[in-house]
Amino acid sequence: MVKPDGVQRGLTGEIIQRFEKRGYKMVGCKMVWPSKELLEKHYADLSGQPFFAGLIAFMATGPVVAMVWEGKEIIKMGRMMLGATNPQESAPGTLRGDYSIDVTRNIIHGSDGVDIAKKEIGLWFKPEEMFDYKSCLKEMVYE
Ligand code: UDP
Ligand code: MG
Q1: SS3 state at 28
Q2: For the whole prediction, is pTM greater than 0.95?
Q3: How many whole angstroms separate alpha carbon 24 and alpha carbon 137?
């Protein structure tokens, strides 16, 4: 998900391109201005953290771009492409390491496990907003 700061800064295209160019397949994409209720469900595991209220408040300041990507080890590789949570520790070459400085404005969210991804997809997407299509990537990207 491109966070509100990523959308405002015009980084949506760059973020999508990084995943497209690597060879991942987009199967869902939409702009959403999330309610606090949705965000509280999305970040429920962090509700006890001191930064929770500030995180929810910031995430509700504007629209985000929610996406679902498919590909080999996409969760693990996607997390590597994002970089560390705190941009001060994100390596150059990662999205956060190239485009962000402070932790609450780290431009992008990525699911960090298969079960979490399923939960998050269920929160953000209706089944008819996801697309099962044949892409040419299968022959050209994978052995
Ligand atoms: N966050 C924050 N302060 C912190 C830690 C995290 O504002 O001290 C924010 C940050 O934007 C992060 C989000 O909370 O992306 C979710 O935290 P998580 O630990 O799940 O990191 P992520 O999975 O996004 O790397
Ligand atoms: Mg997380």
Answers
A1: strand
A2: yes
A3: 8
Exposed/middle/buried for 137, CB within 10 Å: 0-12, 13-18, 19+? middle
Q: What is the pLDDT of residues 27-85, one digit of tens each?
A: 999 999 999 999 999 999 999 999 999 999 999 999 999 999 999 999 999 999 999 99
136 alpha carbon – ligand 2 mean position (Å):
31
Is pLDDT above 90 for 138?
Answer: no
* 29 phi/psi in degrees, rounded to 5: -165, 125
**Contact partners, residue 44, CB within 8 Å, separation at least 6:** none
- pLDDT number for residue 85: 98
Are 102 and 87 in contact, with CB atoms under 8 Å apart?
Answer: yes
Q: Which atom of ligand 1 is nearest to the CA of 54?
A: 7
Q: Which amino acid appears at position 128 of this protein?
A: E
